[in-house]
Amino acid sequence: MNSALFNLMLTQFRQYIREPQILFWSFGFPLLLVWLLGLSFSSQDIPERRIGIVMPQDQKAAAQVREWSEQLAGTDHQLQGIVNLQEVKRQHLIKVKYLVSYYQNRDEVILALKRGDIQMFVEVIPQQTGQKRIYYLDPQDNEAMLSYYLMNEKEQGERQPTEKNLSVLETAGLRYVDFLVPGCWRWRSWKPA
Fold it and tell me: Does 104 or 178 have the greater pLDDT score?
């Protein structure tokens, strides 16, 4: 009986080997899929955060804002507070790069935010002691919240006291459902009765 079971298993294995499509779908395709997914999702670049800046009307203040933004975009921001920093081999995992776009007024920057061109925007208000930066973002956008916290972390490294500098946007059209419901309604109206 032991030999009959062995012969049955051997016969099944031989039938399995004779069919190349079975071998491909059982072994080849899963390995190919794992390789392609690993290749496509293993980004070696430093993550980029897209920030919009509303330029002030005053030329002197605009020059200061441009200098600050060029300094922000010119260097990669390394995350603070990493305990095992010496052990990290892939440095792109702990760095962030900022891409800055300039806008002349608030309407332009809100339109860019609605289109997804930027994740958040900064408005600079001149004061006697310097400038106050106010960050505007949609709190439902996780990328915008992360960008705000990373930029705030970088500023806390420059100066210790942090004042209230966050403004939540509740403009219509920022959420996905603001586009989905009117789009479905319009799509339904195109159908013949």
Answer: 104
